[in-house]
Every structure is written in structure tokens, then in C-alpha cells.
Amino acid sequence: MLLELRIRDFAVIRDLSVELGPGLNVLTGETGTGKSILLGALSLLLGERASSESVRAGADRAVVEAVFDLEGRPELRDRLEELGIATSDELLVLRREVQSQGRNRAWINESPAAAGTVGEFGRKLVDLHGQHEHQTLLHAHEQRTILDAFAEAGPLLDRVAREHGELTRLKELLKEKEARRRELEARSDFLRFQLDEILDADLQPGEDREVEAELRRLDHAEELARSTGQAHDLLYGEEGAASERLAGARELIQRLVRFDESLKPILDELETAYHLTEELGRSLGDYSADVEVDPRRAEELRQRSDMIFRLKRKYGPELTHVLETRDRLQEELAELEEGHVTLGKLEERVQEVDQRLREVAGELTEVRARAAERLIHRLEELLPQLGLTGAVFRVQMDRGEVPGPYGFERVSFQISMNQGFEPQPLSRVASGGELSRVMLALKAILAAVDQVPTLVFDEIDAGIGGTVAVAVARKLQDVSAHHQVLVITHLPQLASAGVRHLRVEKQVQDGLAATAVVPLSGDDRVWEIARMLGGDPESETSRRHARELLDA
Q1: How many whole angstroms from its chain centre is CA 262?
Q2: Predicted confidence band at 49 (pLDDT cuts at 50, 70, 90)?
Q3: How many Å apart are CA 258 and CA 59, to the nearest integer?
Q4: pTM confidence score
Q5: Can you count the helices (H) and strands (E) in the chain?
Q6: Could you give the CA distance from residue 473 to residue 122 in angstroms, rounded to a whole number?
Q7: What pairing do the DSSP bridges indicate for beta strands 13-19 and 91-99?
Q8: For burial by CB atoms within 10 Å, which of 28, 90, 270, 380 has the most?
């Protein structure tokens, strides 16, 4: 529900705050006071384009802001959460700013937002019916939505949307798989060549490092044998070697320990050093004796190293990358070999889902067709009561070959305002006032199932009066039992039906004309109704007539 509309420096409005309540709210005032400007401002929050010309003379920007109650609309709270916009106290604040230099900005709950996103929320909260450019009823999507709401086709629509979404996903996947198969087929010979090249090498993880290490040993075999032999002699193998000297030192300290026990730790260390030196010397001797000079083996390793280097340069830079390339090539060629089976199963799946979609979309078509007949009957009973005598209403359903996310058909509401003329799309044959009354009739029929909480009607009283005006007022009251309704009117019959009455006045502020909105009650409201009746609002006769309308 729309709780408050705030407007600043928009057209002739300087600073205005309009509070609305539940039920039927009526807005009256003399011609030219700015009633339609209020709707123009509100339409900015429904996604209409902003113009710098709407900024009030002398101001640098115009601001339009609306406060909504989100009670009972959890899907909107979920959408806000999805956008990362905080909510509190079940309130939603939409704001648009139009600058005189042409730049526009928008906010949702003080968070910057795109104007389109503001309009997305606004259209889910307000239906505005007046001038053609604001008429949601003229949109094919809205007409289909109205028919589906009347048909209570929500569950079928959900099934159609799910099946269509799944079909779209599968078709995209099939398209990707087919493109992938074509790509692999075009590269298959090259892939096999690369794989054979790597497989023929019979590479092992870490082999490049092992080959390089062994090749270094073979290339320096003579030096390794000579130097380790010399080290063996110095430690163990020659007269006066380190192990012999350590043995002599050990014997000296052993004789001294019996005189001074504090030398015992030193003796232990000498014992350890002697055995370690002896062991190292023997190990170096064994190593020197085992070193083999093998030119043939060295040449084999050089060839192996060169081959590994070429493969690393081609598929590397490291051997692990070469092995990863081998695994990837094997997977791609396996994918190519299995692709025909995979594509066949996927094509079968596409056909299954397509068949299910067509079946459920066909059910939706039948439900819509039956609902369309009922809707036509109900409307043609109701329209004459609203001053549209002789109107003929039709629901045109143009069926396509392929079902979309909303089914097979495109729904179009058509009407003839004069008997004997073929029905045409609403936008071609109906005036703003007639469209508003058609919408009122639809909302009266759909009142209990319609999701949009706030309905705004402008021009609904164009060309009517008397008993038709009374009938329109009663229908507005009926609809307001399920919705918040705001109607701009010049008819006293409509104005007297409201539970909240607001009068638009033009005032002069700082030498400039400005629009103001005044809540009416008691004698002030009686005076306004008397003025609208066309008599002298100061006369008792006019006032008595006004009171009779209000009492009725």
C-alpha cells in the first residue's frame, strides 16, 4: 500500500507530501490546479522517463519519493535481499531525482539503484490507469497476466516456466556439446599426433631430474673416482691418515683417565671421532672403487635428456606439464569417441522435455480459452453499467508453433465501443477514460486475486454522469475492499464515495504558482462536494445535496 507521496520542485509543485490510507482515496480540485502533475510525478517511480523540463522554475533538481508498506509481499523483500538492499519496519522507499542539467538518479531505501530497478518495484506496487502512455492495460504482458489471474493458472504457468527453462538449458548444453564435438573432430589428427609423441617417450614423473643427475655423475666419473680415493687415503688408507692419528690420541688419553676422571668425556668424543672417521674413509673407498666410466651410457642419457628438453619446450615448461598435457589429450580423444553416445542421450532428453512442455502448454491453452469465455461474459455484463453500452469485448489468442516461457499464445484484449464495429486492440479504439473504466471492470472481477495493492485511476469519469457515475463509484468501492484505490475525479458521485478526500489547490509561494493538497473532512468536504455539484457551495440547497451524496 502507498502510505505517502512526497514531491519537491516538480513542475508547479514546490514541496508537497500526500498521505494516503486504505480503501478509496479521492482527489479533487479545480481544473489546472495540478492533479495530473501528481500522477506525472508518481509515474517516474513506475519507470517513466524523466525530463529536465519537469524541474520547477528556479530549482536545480526535482525529487519524487514514495513510501510503501510491504506487509504481505515477501517476494519483494526477497528481491531486495537479492539486490543487497536493506529493509526495516516492512517499509519500502522509492526515490527519483531529476536535475535541471539532465542528470537523473534513483534510490531504493537510501541505496543507489538504476531507474529501471525502481520502476520494477513501482509497477509491482501501483497500477496507474489514465493517459495512454501510462496505461499498463495496453501492454500485452499485462493482458496475459490478467487473463491468467482470472483463470487461476498460476500452477500451470509455473510448470510451463520450469519446463521451458529446462528445455532452454538442455538446448544450450546440446549446442555447446555439438560445437565441442566439431572442434575436437577438426583437431583430432593433431591431438592424436601430439598424444603419440608423448606416449612414445614413455616419460616417468621426475625422470628429467634423475637423468640430469646420472649424466652429471658419468661426465665427471674420473674426477669423482680420483678425488674420493684421495679422501679415502687421507682419512683411512695411508700411513699417518686421520684415523691413525685419532687412534694415537685415544691411547694417550686412555692412560691419563686413571689420573683424572674429568678427561673421560673427551675420551668418549675421541672414540666416536675415530670410528666415524674410519667409517667415512671406508665409504669413500668403496665409492671410489665403484665409480664406472661408461661413455655409451652417457650418450644414451644425453639423447634422452635432449628428447625430454624438446617435449618440455613444446608442452612444458616442466615435465609435470608434459604429463598433464598427455592426460588432457587422452581425455579429449575419449570425449570425442564417446561424444556420439552423449549427444544421442542429450537429444533424447531434449525431445522428452519438449514433449512435456508442449503438453503442459496445451493444458494452459485450454484453461485460458475457457477463462477467456467466462471473462468476456462477465465484462460484457459489467461494461454497460459503467457507461460503455454496446461495447463488445474479445480475447484474441494468437497461437505460436513453439511454446515460450508463458505458453503457446500471445494474448490480446480487443474491444469495440460501438455495436456493429469489429473489435480492435484497446489502444486503437479506447480513450483514456474508457480504458480506465475497462480496467476498473477487470479489477472488479479480479479484485480477490490481483496482486498489485494500489490502483490509481485518472479520467475514469470522462464523459459520464448520473446513474453511470453512481455505478462507477460503487465499483470503485467494491474494488477498494481488496485494494487501496486513488481516483482523480471531477464528479461529486465519485468524490463522495471515498473514505479519504484530498483537495488539490493552487497557491502562490514566493511569487510562483505552487500546488498544495489539503485533506478534507466535515464542513470542508461538504463545501467541496457542493462546489462539484455546480451550485453555490455557500447555499444551503447545495450543501444539503452534498450531505445527501455523502450519506448515501
Answers
A1: 85
A2: confident
A3: 112
A4: 0.65
A5: 17, 15
A6: 26
A7: unpaired
A8: 28
